[in-house]
Specification:
There is one protein chain. The chain is of the alpha/beta class. It has one domain: NADP-dependent oxidoreductase domain (TIM Barrel), CATH 3.20.20. It is about 35% helix and about 20% strand.
Length: about 325
């Protein structure tokens, strides 16, 4: 059995199963830097060959580029799980901005418009299906509704519930960088999956206080993203230029990351190794989503998954938190 599929796990209530390590496709939408078409395709094909069977994307990622590239690379593969997101609808650009301003190295020929209404969700999914070249989407997340709670509750979630009943999608949920609102969605809607980014990591275990217990109670599956907190935990020795949650790491965060990295070395492992495995120890977490942009990154991430860190490390890390 491949490394990725060593422990296949149920994901949601729609019969889906996913490997512990999944492919975050923001990077092949040119996140921070351009990726060539053939390199993006090779990254997806390498992931497939190594047993990765869950791919997460969004219209937001490269203004549709990630979805298009993922759809092309996957072709007619039906033995994989694909998720995308709603909440940002793409519309023709105004022509006043030459480059995307949200971290993706793409031309701003279209623009994002926040829209959590029923019509916005239906339009977004229709366009995602076309970009992905699929007639069904396994999972749809309501994407970053931090300032749009009421609109998501009144528009997006009822629309997704309807689409799940119709069989257009298998499961739905929400994807956010916070746990508090995700916990409200878990308790107040019938979603069956959530994607929490950066809030259940070796540096920030906050989701264990609210979200993860609620997910266990409500039979909601969790995908953990942002396990490197945007970079600081991706290096065996965090540098002074490390980022934490997409901003320069504060001296306090940098000091803590370096102390954890030193502790990992004492136990014969590395901070990135611990970062990938930490979320998977919780019973609510079914998979870890890691951004990948090249075959080399796919293989590196799979290498981190291959063997778990020493069990004694976890108690030591907890004692230093």
């Amino acid at each position: 059995m491949s490394t990725a599929r060593a422990v296949d796990r149920a994901f949601g209530r729609g019969g889906l199963r996913v490997a512990p390590l999944s492919f975050g496709a923001a990077a092949i939408g040119n996140l921070y830097a351009e990726v060539a078409d053939d390199e993006a395709t090779d990254a997806v094909h390498t992931a497939l060959a190594e047993g990765i069977d869950y791919f997460d994307t969004a219209p937001h990622y490269g203004l549709g580029l990630s979805e298009r590239r993922l759809g092309t690379a996957l072709g007619d593969r039906s033995d994989v799980v694909v998720s995308t997101k709603v909440g940002r609808v793409l519309r023709p650009g105004t022509g006043t901005v030459a480059q995307d301003s949200e971290g993706f190295a793409v031309a701003a020929d279209v623009e994002r418009v926040w829209d959590f209404s029923r019509d916005g969700v239906l339009r977004s999914i229709e366009e995602s299906l076309r970009r992905l070249g699929r007639d069904h989407i396994d999972v749809v997340y309501v994407h970053d509704p931090d300032e749009h709670f009421a609109a998501a509750m009144d528009g997006a979630f009822p629309a997704l519930d309807e689409l799940r009943r119709q069989g257009v999608i298998s499961s739905y949920g929400a994807g956010m960088n916070q746990s508090a609102m995700l916990t409200r969605f878990v308790r107040e809607t019938d979603l069956d999956v959530v994607l929490v980014a950066g809030r259940y990591t070796v540096l920030d275990g906050g989701a264990a206080e609210d979200l993860l217990p609620a997910c266990l109670e409500r039979d909601v599956s969790v995908a953990a993203g942002g396990v490197f907190n945007s970079g600081i935990s991706a290096s065996a020795e965090p540098g002074s230029d490390a980022t934490y949650d997409y901003l320069p790491a504060s001296p306090a965060i940098l000091d803590r990351a370096r102390r954890l990295a030193a502790l990992c070395r004492e136990y014969g492992t590395t901070l990135p190794h611990a970062a990938v495995h930490f979320p998977l120890r919780h019973p609510a977490v079914r998979t870890v989503l890691v951004g990948m942009r090249s075959p080399g990154e796919v293989r590196t991430d799979l290498g981190l998954l291959r063997t778990p860190p020493p069990e004694e490390l976890w108690a030591a890390l907890e004692a230093t938190s």
